[in-house]
Structure formats: structure tokens, C-alpha cells
Amino acid sequence: MSPCLQDNLKRIQDTFQDCNDLTIIPWSYGPSLEYKAFSVYFDSLIQNKKTNYMKESLQDLVTHEIGPATTITPEVIKSFFANNGVSAQSANVEDDFTNAVNSVLEGSIVIFFDQWDKALSYCAFGIQLRQVAEPITESVVQGPHMSTIEDLETNIGLIRFLLKSSRLKLQSLTAGKESRRKITYGYLDGVVNPETLSEFKRRISQIDQEEILETSYLEEWIGDSRYTPFPQVRYTERPDTAVAALLDGKIIVMVDGTPTILICPGLFFEYFSSSEDYYHNTVYSSLIRILRIGACIIALLLPSSYIALTTFHSELIPTILLLAILDTREGIPFPAFVEALLMEFFFELLREAGIRLPRPIGSAVSIVGALVIGQAAIQAKIASPVMVIVVSLTGIASFALPQYSMSIAIRVLRFPLMALAATLGGFGVMLGLLLSFLHLSNMRSLGQPYLSSAAPLDVKQFRDIFVVFPRQILLHAPRNRHLHKLKGGGRKA
């Protein structure tokens, strides 16, 4: 930073050349207005009502309280703004030009003074953000109805509000040379696995030069396997889900500018649970959990099983049902595999169209399109009614999975299983499942086995896979062994 005001002004103008929303206000202060200064900020980032008040306050400080003969020091400036500041955050004294430029880019007003090799900056960020509201992608009937938003500080506050613990540790870093996104990760000290935390810190330290625009950008650095359809981290917009993950020994990651919270490591059986499972009666929650697992099996195996049975193993189908299927397939010019492939393609196309279209018409287009195309395909003898039912049930079953990333993996695996069923029949389906299980058994997420609690078997964690045990049992037998030791062998967490 130069003590010459004109040098600093020229550097600012050169740095922000062709930035039309940049505002530079030169002004004078003192009894005879002999002292010069200028303020610099982005109109598009700050609250305009703060700029004039800031200038008047500083002029009043210099003229009446300090005096024209007194040298302005960082201590005086910081003391004044700490007691009479115009911002919710305290002022900062910048002694490096790069830091001053970054402050302007982050929504601060920076003041340069003549004959002073430092600058004063204070936060005046004024971008309008949405308020905390109900989650869009994770709506629940019972439980908290608040969601994270695009403001990182608000999201951290929501986590702190729900988890009032001194052992909740939050650490931040900045990633990206251009975007300079602030990333905050948190964990519960004494609960998280130290080896997992050490490995996570090693991996996330490698992204300091990467442009991170959304939380999902971090998945490739955190995950162990890049070329796999199965997700290795979880995403949520619910603070209560993030807090439950922290209590279970997980690590959460938040990125400024996005409402999504990343939870790692993500293990296979965790993708079939929802936060609402623990807000309902044990019997009902267990029934819903079993229903989701059944939906996963249907979404993965129903088309391939139908192709294998009708093409290779028709003797396994009851005679009356077989005759009904043959009657509906009369006149169909395609084999079962091509028929299923066409209908799956149409269904996936409608699904994507419903997502990309505006919300008021997206659902209508997807529902009407499915009815029209299904009926037209039956009348045109392109697909049989049974195949339309199979594809529809498969799609509905994939919607029942609480984690969208896992439903994508199921959708991807469905097509190779269909191809194996069309070529090798039931043996091909079993071969595909065997290869999938081998792949899952070999996968790890932040060093932990992907099928943890089932392989290797952990009886304490296994109780929360297929059924939801009563809360008294779950709370007195923590799923995380580090928490179990910390609480002295199973006291209520």
C-alpha cells in the first residue's frame, strides 16, 4: 500500500478497469478540507444507505474529535468505528493492497487516506437473499420446517442454534483464485473418527486453487472412487439432518452462495434413511424403511426380471399369467428388451422435461405426457400394457428413495442389467448383481468401507438399517464407537 493517495487511486482504477458498477468517491475533510481521501465500493454489492452516513461520521471524527493536526492511526480509526460504527461488523485496517481489493470484491467499502499506507474497510454487503423457509427437496410431515439458504453465516447460525455444544468445531478456508468462495467444514470433536478427519483435511487442502461454485464440486476431491455411479457423500438442505450427522460422527461442509450441505463419509445404507424416520413411531418408521428398500429392489430389478422371465424363463410364470402376457404382446414388433428400452427412454425423457420446465407446468406436462405416450404406444402396438405397467412401477419406485443421488445410481445400473437379462436371462441378472456387490464391497468413502455396519458386520449399527429401533435403544447405544467411549459406555447422547 502506498502512502500517496494518487498512486492508490491509479492502482484501483487499473485493477477494476471496465467495471461499470464500481464507484469511487473522492472527498476532503478537516477544518479547511485540506486532507484528501476516497472511498471505493461496488454499487451492486453494498447497501447504498450506508455510504453517506459513513462519510459524515468519519468527517465528524476527524474535524471534531481528533483535530486537524492529529495523525490518523489504525488504533483511532478502529476505536471510533467499534464504538460508533455504521456496520454490524467491526472495521478492519488493511495494510496490503491485495487484501483491500478482496474486501471491495466481498462487498466492503474501502477508504484510502492521503499520507497513510493503510486503508479502512468495513462490511456493507447488501445483496437481497431469500429468508429461511421450508425445504423444497426434503419436505416432511413432522419435524422442523426450516431450510438452509445461500448465506453461509445464516447456515452456520442454524447449525449452532440446533447444536449448542462447545465441541462443535467449525473451520474455514477460501478456494478459487477468481471466485474466492468461502468453505466451512464442521465436526463434533471427540465423536468424529480421528483418522477420517485427518484424511478429510488432507483432501480438502488440495482445492485451494480450484473454482468451487457449489457444494457438489467438492465430491470428486472427497470421494475415493471417481468412476462409480454410487454416491459417496450425502446432500441435505435440512439443518436437523446435518446436526444428526454431526452427532453420528460425520463431517459437514458448507459453501458460501449455495444452500446445500455436504455430509461425508456417505455409506450405502444411509441413503435409505430420512430425518423423518426418527420423528414417528418405531413401527411406522420401520415399515417405511422396509418399503424404501423394497422400492430400491423394484427400481433396479423389475424391468430386467420381466425381460429375463418373458424371454428365457417363461416356464417360471404361472400359465394363466403367461397367457395374459402373450395376449397383450400379440402384434408387438419388438422383443421385450427393445420394448423396455424404448419405454424407459420415453419415461426418462419425460422426467427430465418435468424437472427443467417451469414448476407450474412441469408436473402437468410430465403426468399428461406419460398418460398420452403410454396410451398411444399401446394403441400403436409399440409397447404392451404390461410393459407400460412395469416401466411405470419402476419409475414410481425410484421416486420413493429419499436421496436423489442414490436414485440416479439405480437408474444408471438398470440399463446394464436389462442388457444382461436380454442376453443371458436370469444368469445375466445374477451376474450383474454379483458384479455390483463386488464393486460395493471394494468401495470406500474417506477410508471407511462403503457397506459399513453390514460388511464388516457391526451389530450396534446393524439395528438401524432395515428397521428403526426405539429411540431409547438408539440413544443409549450410540452408532459411533468414538461417541460410545466418550460417553462412558453408552449414556444418553
UniProtKB/TrEMBL annotation:
Record has NAD as a keyword: no
Transmembrane segments: 290-312, 386-405, 417-440
Keywords from the UniProt entry: Membrane, Transmembrane, Transmembrane helix
Superkingdom classification of source: Bacteria
GO annotation terms (biological process): spore germination
Keyword Metal-binding: no
Protein's recorded name: Spore gernimation protein
Organism classification: Bacteria, Bacillati, Bacillota, Bacilli, Bacillales
